[in-house]
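Q: Structure tokens for this one, please.
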Amino acid sequence: MSLRSLLLDKLPSEKLALLPKGFEVIGDIAIINIPPILDGEKYVIAEALSIQRKDIKTVLRKLNKIEGSARVADFERLLGNRTTTLHRENGCIFELDVTKAFFSGKMYYERGRIAQKVKEGEDVLVLFAGVGPFLVPIKKKKNVNITGLDNNREACSFLRKNLELNNIEANIILGDARNMNNLFRIGFDRIVMPAPYGQDFFLNMAQSILKSGGCVHFYTFKKDFEIPHFRKILEEKGWHIDFSRDCGDVAPRVKRYVFDLS
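A: Here is the predicted structure, written as tokens:
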């Protein structure tokens, strides 16, 4: 259900038109983008969400874009008294604090798809592992040797908790992906790389730690007209594009794309 449909009887039409198309729900927390012009209505919006969606206990207003090495945004709490939650997807459970570690529920399909693609016995590396949304379902569904790397200490702490919650084991490294060539002396059969916005250079670095015949699942942000040129760049650098798709909008004309590369 869209945010506008929830507020049809709460706001006049001219203000409804200023609302974003929807909101994101992580566990029992709703995250919404309310423009400054609707400051006076922000609590009405939050209350409407909680009334219509009984599963929502906290409403957060996103104040800025995700930024910084920890990849977190600032939020204003409009309803509720906590920012931690339990989120369930792909048969897994995740504990996290949305103000301290990046998490997007919009990627649940991709995380399930990758878990199905992984083969038994593989050596798998998940870069920018966060609280484990890619790593946990892979390990829970497949018997693999898996390593997660992230430079956010809070995210790594939650990832360790989530390994326990899902009764699995993995290698967790608190470190910078820029040092991946020094951190890893052995290669990986598969690398999952949900790269931060504008940081495609990590893909080049990953080539040196990918085994011959290995696969990289690379996530990037692009405007639609940039894709043909980007595909050409990938091919010029020796990558074979086995599969690609857009994973949804993140900004006007900007989408997240995945490329399965070998």
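A few notes: The chain has two domains: 3-82, 106-261. The mean pLDDT is 93.
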